[in-house]
Amino acid sequence: MKKIVFFRILFILVLGIIALFTFLNPKKVETNLLKAFFTNGVQDEILVDLSGKYSSNINVLFESENLELLESAKEHFQEEIDKQNFHIEQNDPQKILEFYEKYKNNLLSNKDYELLKSGNYDEISQKALNNLYNPLGFSILPFEEDPFGLFSDFIFNLGNSQNINTKDGKYYEVINLKVDDDIALSPTLTNKAVEKLIEIQKSYQNNELKVYLTGAPVHAYYASAKSINEINLICIISLIFVGGLIFWYFRSLKILIPVLVSLLVGIGAGFSITSAVFPSIHILTFVFSTTLIGICVDYSLHYLMESDLKKIIKSLTVGMLSTVCALLILFFSGIELLKQIAIFTSAGLITVYLFVILFYQLLPQQVSREKFDLKFNRRLLIIIFLIIFAGVFKIHFDDDIRSMYKPSNEMLQAEKLYHEVTDKNSNTSFVIIEGDNLQDILNKEEKISEKLSNNNISYQALSKFLPSKTRQKESIILQKNLYEKKLSDFKDFLTKKDIETLKILHVEFLNEDILQKIPQLKDFIIDENHTIMIVYDMQNPLLLDSFDGVRYINLPVEISAKIKNIRISVLKVLLPIFILLYLILGGIFSFKNAHKIILPSIIASLFAISFISIFQPLNLFHVLAIFLITGFGLDYSVFRFNGSKKSNDAVLISCITTVFSFSLLALTSFKLISSLGLVLAVGLLTSYILSVLLISKE
Q: Are 591 and 683 in a shared domain?
């Protein structure tokens, strides 16, 4: 007795120290989904930062047939926007023009640069004459200051105008917002900010004015809000169901108290130990790990139904060790998320196991009033194997990250309208340019720009707004040659003084001061050695292969490829896991019996995957569910093989409650959650049925 008291005190002391350490060293909970997978090296960091930078934008699109109403609504809407949460991405065109005008002699659009470089002065001159004689011709500067329209071409080529758009007899204007960096990394804070924005949007909606919101933060708000409501409802229904089932079996709800305490202790220990090992904990670790710790309910139910630790200690220990060994293999996967899941769940399971064997003896003995005696027809095996046979040949995977989320029809229509009105292609990709310094990078960007322009590919880049010093020097020489050769074509429109003044080129190089005038340009800069080019509708990335220090990134493609690699890595560790489990079970129960215990989990996993594949493609989360099926399934099998009749009841109750909860999750609208819920419900039910059909006690 003294020995168990000592271990109880030691257990409490260790947990207290771990809890104190966690309290004194709080760790950040990582919410960026990409950081669950992209954690290896600088290239992954760039991709994650890139995704975050360009997924925190919100577009407010105004639609009306009344232009005056449209302008007024936009102005008042901007005043109501919370400036602490959002930055309005707009520039003062007049101030920007005044800034650029000082450098007009060394600024050329790509097209004019190529024409002048090839000596095609006549085309430049003819274009200027056509504009001069055209009553609708337009030039930013007076003719005598920019007779060839070179400065006007440069400004128009920036593609930064905010003109009013029209479509089908309606006017459209856009406000571009960027979520503040301080809240962009927190989904909770971002959702609160978006919720306020939606309230403002609704207050402006009427028969004469429509306001649309688009962008990733808006999608995230609607998806999370709907998922939270669904999951809260599922938790309430599940709690009522579990409580009702336990009350029916034990005729008491008191036993829920130790069960809940053990789970809270397990989750707390898992979180604390994971905090000690990793610099931050990813939110997906909680999603998967707290689900796995549901296995611990079995431990409590087994003891409460048997009340004799000696009869179940072997089954409890084997069930815990086999599950922990399977999970710890994930620690060597090289994937941050899987490492965290391995530590979190292993620590949680061991803690709950120790809590049950050390403290449950203090509880009064429970009396179970009902007994289950379920039997299944062995013909079910034929059906199971037929479905496996049918599904195996249809197995195919969809690793596209976009397939895991389906927006509402309203959001789809808003996004479509925004791209149509603004003429912004949704097929956006990026080019990362590496260089020794900013000037080196700008030189590379300009060479890439020439290649893109020659292939009619639209783009945005820092070099458009800030040409390299090399390009500026060349532009000065090219303009000087043009003026020497072609200003005489305009002698009827320019005085001799104008001509002489134009030939005197006042040179002052445009420098990085432009970044202060147009702060948005800083978004093109990753660090002192890397910048970003944004390209639209690029079908052939091989165009960039001839450039050194250049990396093409299509975010959906890159993310999907990473997910595919993770899925393959996970599939590769499944066989070692099952072999390890077989060896462990063989060492404890003999190899003759080990295959009987592990076979239900293997067949159930294969059945669940095959069954799902008949109706839809599989994704990473279906594969990850195999670990959950294995963990729960081994628990069923071990107690079926080595437990008592009451242990069989505990397994059945655990299976019923678990399958019920996961079946409800399968009904949610968020595909990631529903995918996990469906495959788990199918796999765990099959695992239990197979444990009954295939395992008989020797």
A: yes
